[in-house]
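user: Please supply your own:

assistant:
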Amino acid sequence: MMASPYNRAVYDAEPQLRRPLLFLRGMFSDIRSSRELAWILLMRNLRSQYRKSILGYVWAVLPTLVTTLIWVFLNQANVMNVGETDIPYPVYVLVGTMLWQGFVDALNSPLRQVTASASILTKINFPREALILAGLGETLFNFGIRLVLVLLLFVILRIPIPSSIVMAPIGFFALLGFGTTIGIFMIPIGILYSDIERAMVLLTSLWFFVTPVVYPSPTTWPASLLANLNPVSSLLVTSRELMTTGNLSQVLDFSVVTILTAILLFMSWVVYKLAIPHITSRLMAR
């Protein structure tokens, strides 16, 4: 009988970093070998996500639209004065909310994917990167639906689209990459303690209000200090500017955060790779 490529999980007690070059080769090899499984998991997740839904893929954009309408109403009713924006405020909020939702999806996806697969982690040996890739694919899919909606509104409302929009994917991937990086770092603790997942909901709710999603970047202290210390600010602001005006105001901050994101993303991958065998052992002991 032919052996299955994904057998029962077996873990080596030898420290993986004892041979770092072999460890690194294994990491990139697992990425290549996990692509097919990641695609299968992605298709399964997308089908199950909207299987019993009447509205279907509308749910991918509905939270963004509702949030936009609420903030537009608050601004027009003078409940909140958000200040002047370079583009019509409804568009400003819609683009900001779309970007923010993408960041939150990327932040929550790694832990959600691994938690949902906890039962098979203890039974089947497969490249664990497939879970992260499947979650990232789902995030990109939902983000793409929202992006198409925004671009359609640009056309309908005859909002000028700058040539800099061709560079916007750089901002998108930096923003989603930063969210994914934090999400991967949270996996080792989050998969063992459900408090982390609940805390992330509270954290992102507070994080929203210190990020210029629905208002321009503050210029007065102490709000300006919070915005400058918030790495999401430059990523989101630059992505929105690339999409709407082409006038970039935070190029240096964006560049620094993007470079740090690339470094931290690799580090989070290493931590994930090292932690998964120990996490699985803990899960099997329960």
Summary: DSSP finds eleven helices and no strands in the chain. Confidence is low (pLDDT under 50) at residues 1-13. The two ends are 32 Å apart (CA to CA). Residues 55-285 form one domain.
